[in-house]
């Protein structure tokens, strides 16, 4: 089934964005929108609001606001689960032992600095795409320029 998902390259992996985009397109997906943005703390907290009670929330927000990120709309067959499969496990050490070819194994650092994000469901994808690429109203997070 053709799906849309939100793929986000995190600050640690922005220097590797070319390789990550190549992996996405070589897998057969299409990148239909992309923007580089520097998230404010409020924006990062809103994006990750489902994790606000977690012990790692503050570290996550500090990391996600430490430099620009690249948000992309990715379209393709089973794009939601397919992009997450390409990402590999959340923790990069686990990724390196279980799925050495995955994006997180190749480009991530640890459990927080894990190179990239993917929506976990069709509903999350709709919310997260609207966050970065609003269909009406404002333009979303400001461009880094
Ligand atoms: P992501 O897939 O973007 O979703 C939530 C993020 O929180 C996750 O990637 C990691 O960056 C971070 N995260 C998730 N679990 C942990 C954890 N146990 N410890 C530290 N950071 C985590």
Question: What do you see in this structure?
Answer:
With 145 residues, this protein is of the alpha+beta class. The chain is 39% helix and 19% strand. It has a four-stranded antiparallel sheet, with helices on both faces. The longest helix is centred in the last third of the chain and has 11 residues, at 122-132. The N and C termini lie far apart (36 Å). The mean pLDDT is 95. Bound molecules: adenosine-3',5'-cyclic-monophosphate. Adenosine-3',5'-cyclic-monophosphate binds at residues 51, 56, 60, 90, 111-112, 114, 117. The site of adenosine-3',5'-cyclic-monophosphate (CMP) has 8 residues, from loops.
List keywords for this structure.
145 residues; four-stranded antiparallel sheet; 7 helices; globular; binds adenosine-3',5'-cyclic-monophosphate
Q: Briefly, what is this?
A:
With 145 residues, this protein is α+β, with helices and mostly antiparallel strands.
Please write out the topology.
Layout: E1 2-9, H1 17-26, E2 30-37, H2 41-47, H3 57-64, E3 69-77, H4 79-87, H5 92-98, H6 103-107, E4 116-118, H7 122-132
Antiparallel strand pairs: 1-3, 1-4, 2-3
The chain binds adenosine-3',5'-cyclic-monophosphate (CMP).
Per the principal axes of the C-alpha atoms, what is the gross shape? globular
Major β-sheet annotation: 4 strands, antiparallel
Instruction: Give the termini separation.
Output: 36 Å
Number of helices: 7
Question: What is the H-and-E element order?
Answer: EHEHHEHHHEH
Helical coverage, percent range: 25-40%
Show unreliable segments: none
Q: Beta-sheet strand percentage?
A: 15-25%
Helix and strand composition category: alpha+beta
Strand order of the largest sheet: 2-3-1-4
Mean pLDDT: 95
Cα-atom Rg, whole angstroms?
14 Å
Number of E strands: 4
* Unique bound compounds: adenosine-3',5'-cyclic-monophosphate
């Amino acid at each position: 089934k053709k799906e849309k998902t939100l793929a986000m390259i995190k600050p640690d992996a922005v220097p590797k964005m070319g390789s990550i985009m190549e992996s996405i397109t070589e897998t057969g997906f299409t990148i239909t929108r992309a923007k580089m943005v520097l998230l404010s703390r409020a924006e990062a907290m809103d994006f990750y609001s489902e994790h606000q009670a977690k012990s790692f929330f503050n570290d996550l927000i500090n990391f996600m606001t430490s430099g620009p990120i690249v948000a992309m709309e990715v379209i393709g067959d089973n794009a939601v689960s397919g992009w997450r499969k390409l990402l590999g496990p959340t923790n990069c050490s686990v990724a390196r032992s279980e799925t050495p070819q995955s994006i997180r194994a190749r480009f991530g650092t640890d459990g927080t600095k894990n190179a990239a994000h993917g929506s976990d469901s069709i509903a999350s994808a709709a919310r997260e795409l609207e966050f970065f690429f609003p269909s009406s109203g404002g333009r979303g997070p400001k461009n880094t320029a």
